DNA sequence: ATAGGGTTAG
């Protein structure tokens, strides 16, 4: 054994593989590559291969490069590519497409394009593999317009013949930005060419439609493939549809789909079951989730870490932290490893249940285990600190987040603004907002809703008005919440006329009022002893099938008891009381 | 005889 090899053993600590490599006559055939199961194996093999004389063929090196890429070790793969280059292994379109893919997946599409430049210098004609990787990279960096431009340019200038994968990559990008219309148009375009859409094309769009709650459109597309019969739906297609149904709480239809797929001889996989488990847990229906887990085990599928992460979420949502913790500790016993997502779920649970001390303890436990907190972790903790009024600690963590190289995202910004508003620091929130200027973060309707709500709550309805006009000027669309917080602000200041005007504007702006709008407006009217429209509003609520919440109802009872409102209103009110409130003892004696 | 695509976390 030479010095280099013994050093390798020490460095990479995998003597079994290395000795195996040394005693196998250095062959790098397919069966050899099969035995590579982790990065160390692959790196050891690469080192060994590069010492052989003559050097193994480009093909062997590329196979290994591919393997490392498939393990998602993109930066290692890029490093090996560079080493291959310095060894003098000739670069071809195969290794080049892998290298470009790696750059793109590392969010370094710029470097991918630099490699594209070197393709031209090396007389390697870039092909559809390379261009697809670049389009994918642009999409990954949210540069959808650049991706579209490149895609169109390639077709127009006939720089490469697009194939189904390239179309699918572009369609995936469009779907990422909810541009289902263009995605569908591309699918129709494909039908006109000899590059027919496949199950990937359909699944991508079906999934996107489900995510955008366009479940009927998703099923229309699904029926198309079922009738067509030339493309068969697979487990992923079904899983996406089941996921869409679950998000709507259409449990019966979801279980019908599960049955239907099994009738078609498509077995649901762990992912399919996880979608169901997750949907139940998000509704706090942990019993149902546990039942699904049992079915999954009966079918011979082993629940994985994702399954348990959902279950933890479910128990946290119900505030059953002891149970959540129990699941958390059972993970290790099952031979699974809790990841950042697992910790994030539990941290979220502790924060939402206002046990910030426990959250802090778990946060330290996670970093102690070498897990790197991500942006979700920081957002969760920052929100947790704000919730209990510890805004100084929130600020500290926000700074630490920067220091740890985790870039705040749109959620961080929302959390900080909301946290400041709720901690009586509206001025601070406003100056942060102004500091951000016209950035992308400030083109978020949720941010406006938070601020309008914040300023409204401290009576600064004039500032709310300016903010509202500002978002309109920016071309942003106010949503129901925007209107609700504005109306609430007006009501609080007794500006009922303004409130009513905005309320009437909702319908004509294509944003019909929801139950909250009615509750806010009714409370405003009652508190200001302005009863003219009350009966009409209650009637409208009934027509729309809305119900009253406990606090509005209680306000009504007070007003009736004080003789301010006529008892004839009771009948209408009775219709608007949801079943859960009917058991309220205070309501028993007013019939 | 070496490259590419679709389903789950705040």
UniProtKB/TrEMBL annotation:
<dbReference type="InterPro" id="IPR002885">
    <property type="entry name" value="PPR_rpt"/>
</dbReference>
<dbReference type="Pfam" id="PF12854">
    <property type="entry name" value="PPR_1"/>
</dbReference>
<feature type="repeat" description="PPR">
    <location>
        <begin position="514"/>
        <end position="548"/>
    </location>
</feature>
<dbReference type="InterPro" id="IPR011990">
    <property type="entry name" value="TPR-like_helical_dom_sf"/>
</dbReference>
<dbReference type="Pfam" id="PF13041">
    <property type="entry name" value="PPR_2"/>
</dbReference>
<keyword id="KW-0677">Repeat</keyword>
<feature type="repeat" description="PPR">
    <location>
        <begin position="339"/>
        <end position="373"/>
    </location>
</feature>
<dbReference type="InterPro" id="IPR051240">
    <property type="entry name" value="Mito_RNA-Proc/Resp"/>
</dbReference>
<dbReference type="Pfam" id="PF01535">
    <property type="entry name" value="PPR"/>
</dbReference>
<comment type="similarity">
    <text>Belongs to the PPR family. P subfamily.</text>
</comment>
<feature type="repeat" description="PPR">
    <location>
        <begin position="269"/>
        <end position="303"/>
    </location>
</feature>
<feature type="repeat" description="PPR">
    <location>
        <begin position="234"/>
        <end position="268"/>
    </location>
</feature>
<feature type="repeat" description="PPR">
    <location>
        <begin position="163"/>
        <end position="197"/>
    </location>
</feature>
<feature type="repeat" description="PPR">
    <location>
        <begin position="444"/>
        <end position="478"/>
    </location>
</feature>
<feature type="repeat" description="PPR">
    <location>
        <begin position="409"/>
        <end position="443"/>
    </location>
</feature>
<protein>
    <submittedName>
        <fullName>Putative tetratricopeptide-like helical domain-containing protein</fullName>
    </submittedName>
</protein>
<feature type="repeat" description="PPR">
    <location>
        <begin position="198"/>
        <end position="233"/>
    </location>
</feature>
<feature type="repeat" description="PPR">
    <location>
        <begin position="479"/>
        <end position="513"/>
    </location>
</feature>
<feature type="repeat" description="PPR">
    <location>
        <begin position="374"/>
        <end position="408"/>
    </location>
</feature>
<feature type="repeat" description="PPR">
    <location>
        <begin position="304"/>
        <end position="338"/>
    </location>
</feature>
